[in-house]
Amino acid sequence: MARRSDGAGSVGTTEADATGARADRPLSGEKAQRIIEAMRSNVARRGLAGATFDQVARDAGVSRGLLHYYFGTKEHLLVQAVRHDCELRLASLRERLVAAKRADDFIALMAMDLQEGLTDDPDFTTLIFEMFTLARRNDEVALEFADLLRRTRETVTEILTDAQGRGVVALTADPASVTDVLFALADGFALRILSEPERDFRDSIITAVRSTRPLLGS
Description:
Blueprint (H helix, E strand, L loop, with lengths): L14 H5 L10 H21 L2 H8 L3 H8 L2 H24 L5 H18 L1 H14 L3 H27 L9 H21 L6 H15 L2
């Protein structure tokens, strides 16, 4: 049986309702972008537990009823916000990495993507961690989160496989394993950098970059 929402963004729907029945109600365009941005900022400031549909609706300039109609619960809205951001980031990363001519270019571009993300948009990483925490106690969100990780892994694995085919990199392990290591490093640094914003991580990031070079044949 699906677990129920905590009530702050629910009208008696279950999480199955939110991730299932509501999924066939597309909302796109400028209004959807305002809702996603409002959800991102509210979760980043208050955490998912502190964010409410009332606050999100007010910040987005839409009615609370519209949020309920399209998303059902704030948990499902969080899923949609993270999914939207991940798709944009993956498209941007793919575009960047296609320009790499050698392994060092590939590594430098990935490191730049991580640093820019944490500097320019730390809210995104906060949303990922909020979704991870929620997934530990919510079966439907856990499935969504696992699917998100799978699609992200497959995209980067595909990029690595293509780069190897073009002679840009010479992987010393299978592409999926290399992808897992790269994401493990990125996730670890993201957590530490956001937790210790006053600390200078530049030397540590340089060390991490050097550690990945053997994996990519640099």
